[in-house]
Every structure is written in structure tokens, then in C-alpha cells.
């Protein structure tokens, strides 16, 4: 628990000091997008890393949040916070409705089922042109909270950074609770967890819904920040990108999910020469991570530091 509090404090310091080292709004924009991806990945890591359940359709919930906000705020003139809550509720309802049947599956069957859910959501967003604008997307009004309009990269950075800290804090508290211990138990062995009295179906459904809500909230904020949302943000490749971030940073590591999201959001901008091969590069990164760093980047580095410290102490 102490290490996690220290990690949360270090994350807060990094987020507070980061704007001082960013020379212009382009880098602030990258930091904002990385923060939004990190919010999704923290929730997805609870499902994949701690509960051991695969999801290849989480971009769909990101899209639900984004489009719920776009439609309710821009078309029906709802207050932004109410629209964000409505999008989160809709994502939660859909996630709960599909969680029980699909989470009975295991392995590649589960992966295919979640992939199907994401594809269905993406198809609906593309074809319901009267509501969503179709492939061209929708223009979204700026975020307005109690008469204050959130405008400019620097203000948006603090909004996203604050929400990321809250998300990480919630995830850490969940992990240290009896619910977190139940999730780790079913990840280790679902049969053993059931033998010990853990209602695995209920806990899997709960964490699936929670991760969907995190993705929906991030999607709503992205819609306001970007000012334009298209179905591409809810497609299969976006889901693969999110899973790659979690695996690369370190499954069952909340801070690893943040690091993975940050690196893989910024990396494509630094390697613009490979822009046409972005998804091939993501696949290569995922493959190399599984081969050489099966625990992910952050847990591997932490293990190396710990081993070197232990070796130094013996000397």
C-alpha cells in the first residue's frame, strides 16, 4: 500500500511539472491525448491485467461516450456533465447486458466475442447517419461547466491530469480492497476462486462494467476536446491499440498502464516516417514485449532495479 501511495504521489509530481518542460501546444496536445488513453488503459488493465479477461472491443465504449456527448450536447443542448453521465450510464448498461453471457467464454472465444461487440458498435456509429453523421462524424460543442468554457490546451491539460489522478487513485483503492483480491484470485484460477466462495461471474461483470465506464468518460472528454468525433475512434484497430498499451506498460500494473499509454501515444508522432505502418509497428511492439518482457515494461524495469539492489546489498 505504501509503495502505491508513493507511486501516486510521484505521478502527481510528474503531472504537475510536465507542462514546464513542454515548449508549445503541440506537446501539450500529445500529453492530453496520452492522459485520455491512460484513463481508458487503467480501467482496461483492471479487466485484462487483474481479472484476466480479454477485451478487443473497448474502443466501442470509448465511442459510445464520445457520441453520447456529441448528440446530447450539440444536438439536444444538454448540459455537458449530464451528457457525460448519460454516456457513462449507457456504456454501463450495455456492458452489463453483454457481460454475463460473453464472460462465460474463455481464451480466444472470449476475445472473438468482445471483438464482435466492438465491431457492432462501430457499424452502428457508421450507419446511423441521421443520428451520428455517419463516416464523416459530428462536430461537438466545447465543454461548458457551470458557465465556464474549457478552452485551450493548457486548461485541458489540467482537466485531464486531474481526472487521471482520480482514476488511478480509484483503481489503486479497488486493487487493495476485497474486490481486488477476488479479481486476482479469479485471474490465478477461476475454479480455485469459486471453491473459496468467490462469485466469479459477478466480479467479472462488475469489472467489465467499470472499465467500460472509464472508457466512456474518456471518450466524452475527447469529443469535447477534439471538437470532432468520427467512428474511427471506436473501431477494431483502436481497441488493439489500447490492449497493446496495457500489455506494453505491464499487465496487473496500474502505473504500467499509464506509462504504456504515454509511450505508445507519443511514439507514433516521433516515428512519422513509419506513419503508413503504424499498426504493423504496434503489432511488432506487442510481439517483442511478449517475448522479451512478458510482464511488461514497468514491472520488468522494477524487477531489474530490485535485483540489482539485492545484489548490491549482498556485496
Automatic annotation (TrEMBL):
Topological type in the membrane: Multi-pass membrane protein
Top-level division of the source organism's lineage: Bacteria
Keyword list, A-Z: Cell membrane, Membrane, Transmembrane, Transmembrane helix
Any single Pfam family the record assigns to this protein: BPD_transp_2
Transmembrane parts of this sequence: 26-48, 55-74, 80-99, 108-125, 155-175, 205-226, 246-267, 279-298
InterPro entries xref list: ABC_transp_permease, LivM-like
Subcellular localization, as worded in the UniProt entry: Cell membrane
Name recorded for this polypeptide: Branched-chain amino acid ABC transporter permease
